[in-house]
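Hi Prof. W.,

I finally got the KFA formamidase prediction working! I wasn't sure whether to trim anything, so I left the full sequence exactly as given:
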Amino acid sequence: AGTQRARASAQTSLHVPYGDGDGEKLDIYFPADPSGTFPALVYIHGGYWQCLSKDESGFAAPPLVSQGVAVVAVGYDIAPKGHMDAMVLQVRRSLAFLVERYPGIRGIYLCGHSAGAHLAAMVLSTDWTEYGVAPDIKGAVLVSGVYDLEPILHTYVNDALNMSREVAQRNSPMLCVTPAAPAATACEVLVAVAQHDSPEFRRQSQEYSQALRAAGWSVSLLDLAGVDHFDIIEKLSEESYVLTQVGEELPSSL
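And this is what came out:
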């Protein structure tokens, strides 16, 4: 319902192609006056890389759009059609496309839940020289994410993904943390985990946030009481945690 409301109220561009693939599309919810410059929150959906889509991702849009923030929901080819390497590449390309296509965007905030947090974390380790652009990523909110794919290799989740050990290692954010860029382009990373997330999720969130911190990133770990793996993202959007994170960086006019 949140997505439908967002689509009705905002200036919206749906299914904007950022590539030729079927899944390579963005839904963009613009602020009321998109003529100037505005920050953008880029939301990457979860679903264990094999279900859900950008179409359920508009729930965060109304409160943000009303405060002058564009919200972008990223689509990618989920498994079995999409392979892990391809999904990571797609999400990176979607950001390069956004920056080139919408010069009004000033500052990008990534937000991802579960598999989406994994993909957002992989975006943080991108070598942008290959893309010819440098998105100004000011913040990332990684919610109940997976940062080491190896434990998944022997679970049902890998039935559709069909990852080899090499693919899992190559696409594990834990194993490709890059040194933080100079302070001028500092990016605030919030790693959020639910009290009732499984021990594996909780362990990975702690270890990934420590690895980022050790590499010089600015990181906070948020352990949310009373929520589980699925309702944590609703809680975060309802209580404007994401907004507050983004808000600290935004112009005081908000």
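The chain has nine helices and eight strands. Does that look reasonable to you?

Thanks,
D.
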